[in-house]
């Protein structure tokens, strides 16, 4: 949940996500990561990070021909949770 400061704010965020299926808007003061930073954090190529986040809701996409991505911390955490949960679901099915 990143920069949410109180339990109440976290609960509101979770309720909004459950009701709409998508998280609320990203806060502008939130830490944003570059593709290179995420690639280093997750030990992935920059191309892999671009594919993972290019169409992810909440990611800032700037440019037409060459696209620059800025990935908010909350989006980074959400994608990490989703990818981690996918492994748990697959193990349960085996």
Account of the protein in words:
- The protein is mostly helical and 94 residues long.
- It has a domain at 29-93.
- 54% of the residues lie in helices and 12% in strands.
- The protein has a three-stranded antiparallel beta sheet.
- A hairpin with a 5-residue loop joins strand 2 and strand 3.
Briefly characterize the structure.
With 94 residues, the protein is mostly helical.
Principal-axis shape: globular
Report the portion of residues in β strands.
5-15%
Total DSSP E strands: 3
Main sheet specs: 3 strands, antiparallel
Work out the helicity level: 40-55%
What structural category do the secondary elements indicate? mainly alpha
How much is the radius of gyration in Å? 15 Å
Please state the oligomeric state of the protein chains shown.
single chain
Order of helices and strands: HEHHEEH
Q: What is the CA–CA distance across the termini?
A: 30 Å
Number of helices: 4
Q: List unreliable stretches of 5+ residues.
A: none
How are strands sequenced across the largest beta sheet? 1-3-2
* Mean pLDDT over the residues: 80
């Amino acid at each position: 949940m990143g920069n949410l400061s109180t339990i109440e704010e976290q609960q509101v965020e979770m309720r909004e996500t459950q009701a709409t299926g998508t998280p609320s808007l990203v806060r502008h003061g939130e830490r944003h990561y570059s593709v290179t930073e995420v690639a280093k954090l997750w030990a992935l190529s920059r191309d892999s990070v671009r594919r993972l986040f290019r169409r992810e809701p909440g990611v800032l996409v700037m440019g037409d021909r060459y696209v620059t991505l800025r990935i908010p911390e909350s989006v980074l955490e959400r994608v990490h949770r989703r990818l981690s949960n996918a492994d748990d679901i697959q193990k349960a099915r085996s």
